[in-house]
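Hello Y.,

Per our agreement to keep a running log of every chain we model this quarter, I'm adding this entry. I've kept the format consistent with earlier entries: sequence first, then predicted structure.
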Amino acid sequence: MRERHEVVSGPARRGDLTRGPLATFARRTFATHVALARRRALATLATLALGCADDVTALAAHASTILVDGDTVLVASPDDDAVVALDATTLMERARLTIAGAPTKLARLDGSPEGADTLVVSLAQAAEVAWIERDTDGALEDARIVRVPVPCGGTGAVLALSTDEALVACPHDDRLVHLRDAAVIATYTSPGRPTALARLGDRIHVGLSRAGRVRVLDAATFAPREELVLESTRGVAAVQLDAFAADGAAVIASYQRVDFDRDRTRDPRLGGYGAVNDGTPRLEPRLLAPCGGRYARFDGGERVASGPSALAFDAARRRLWIAHRQTGNVVLVACDGRSARTGLAAPSEREAQVLGAVYVGRGLEGLALADDGAVFVDVAFDHAIAKVREVEGAPSIVAQRTRSLGATAMSAAALRGRALFHDARDTQLTPSGVVTCASCHPGGGEDGLAWFLHTSTVGPKLRRTPPAWGARTSLAPYHWDGEHESARELTLATIRALLEGDGLLVELDAIAAYLEELAPPPPRPADDPAAAARGRALFDARCASCHPGGGSDGLAHPIAPPSEDAAARLERAFTPTLQAVRARPPYLHDGRAATLRDVLTTADPDARHGAADLSAPDLDDLVAYLETL
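Predicted structure for the entry above:
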């Protein structure tokens, strides 16, 4: 059917809730907002008082690309701009709703098992959220779509708060947006790239993928209550904190633990990211769970797992399902351990009890728990849906069907290339199943890390990960020092030097097509249009010669600041694109600049960027413009 939509201008003011124009609005609505939230919290506490730990699970909510809606399974399909409804028994398609903007995550607002009348869908390639109002029978095909403008360039995780409220994460803008009745009512800053949301009782958990932290907010006031750092070892980070589940007493999270700069004395002959030495990989999927943190082994067996992308916890059976985007398998863990009612387990080196794994397909993106204890799996890259259940103590596929696909933004070659970009099963890409291109470039972007590289053919050097979507023909050559002239050459060199593969029989041109067609995060609406306009004038006068149109001139310049770190020295750096630059801190080739303002000031002692004479207001205006790109 044809998309029907309305553009709704919500009453929100963009920015930090505690200051600026948004503060005026916040003061006007604070009493009403808090009163409503307190009623929700009191209802939660009443339920806790009457029930046991499993009662808490009913109050836990988290976002996914797939959800069970009575006898229907709903799946977000960003490749063809649709939300698809499938029969939960036959897996046959029932209906589809076209929603432009790459629908990514979806949540049902009322929390009832069936007959829902409102869905909220995040859009990865729009500055909007889709608010879908369905008829009382829950029919998708006759739904009314309201497109709600948000102060973000692309949205991700979405969390149902009540029958008419939702919270949406903006991973590229470090923001959370609170919606009520198809309108924005507040915007909160959330530094660290928010990629996952969950509610457990009176607490909201926010997964921060760049910061490697879980931040806990009060569900009534949205004020911070606590924060957990997942990794504290120098040179080790927790990234891709993309999935939450809840065991009734604690929120469970999955992430990738990466050793990006822990030991510079490491023998370079030990290899790159894909090497496993003494059973220890440099990249390892981990759990934040009461039943253990480690669950993957890299011995060539079925327990090889990479890129955890979704979780589902069956509280009744004490089973945790883990989907993996890069190895395409679903791992089943017996999660019998129960944590105290703190809301967060502590990171653990203890190995979880793995019951088994089953390969389901390419690019797993979401899990949804069925009433019978099985899980529905969104096999996104294959455009398929699967049902997996525990059979004789191990996971087994009991049903699977490919779903229809409309016109896609990417070519068939680019879709093949995307699968290869994420593939940890092909031994010619990565023999140990540890790492893929997507390990450092999640979603085709970047991980926010500056890696110390030293192998038998590379380094030693310290380099900030650039976004993979920057490997377009118009932005060649690639890498900070411009060492690769084509995406094909770049891909083959990365496979051989860092992934440990040989690259033989790998369809390199398909990967190059994916990099060419991969869309960057969309622009963000200006918080202050007047300031952004003044900033654009400054940009055109001072910056456009090297960054024409916010892109790159394709030339090398002696712009890199001097460094006492020998690995960070770079005589000349090729100009990077400034597209979506707001989403890519820290900055410069070695990540020394924490903010865009730092790039122009503290990280530029020799005034090589030519901004030393700008006043503080002019710098504010210039940054305001850069944040809209």
